[in-house]
Amino acid sequence: MIELKESKIVEVERFVEMESASDTAGFILPYSAEQHLAAMAQAQVIYLSIYQSQVLVGFIILSLDGTSSVEFRRIVVSEKGRGIGQHAMSSMEQYCIDVLGRKRIWLDVFSENARGIHIYQKQGYNQFDRGEYHGQSLLFMEKLL
Length: 145
Hints:
The protein is α+β, with helices and mostly antiparallel strands. It is 30% helix and 39% strand. The protein has helices at residues 12-19, 22-25, 33-40, 84-98, 114-122; strands at 2-6, 45-52, 55-65, 69-77, 104-110, 126-133, 136-144. It has a seven-stranded mixed β-sheet with strand order 1-2-3-4-5-7-6, with helices on both faces. β3 (55-65) and β4 form a beta hairpin. The chain is globular, with a radius of gyration of 14 Å.
């Protein structure tokens, strides 16, 4: 069973460890502990910790965007291929509806992140634009809630 909880500062070191894993670091822009703490201090940024059987197995970063949208900035899970991320995304989407009152979630993903793109499409996200970050191609995807 997957459970989302508001993240705590004491979890930040574990977030940094998860981001530095070889099967994660190439698909995100990892943060230092200081960067996570600074982001957590921002009113519009929401960190949700992913727990499975009372064990921290990942986290999600959201950022409020206007009055009806949420930027889905990041999801990191410690164990890939077990469906944890997909279950957490479904819970996060419900959180965005129930708690945040949002109607749209959007994200960007590096175009070479085939696994991420596949999962986002499977979860109902559609591409609405393209972009670039430091020479790397980005896809912008959204889901209407």
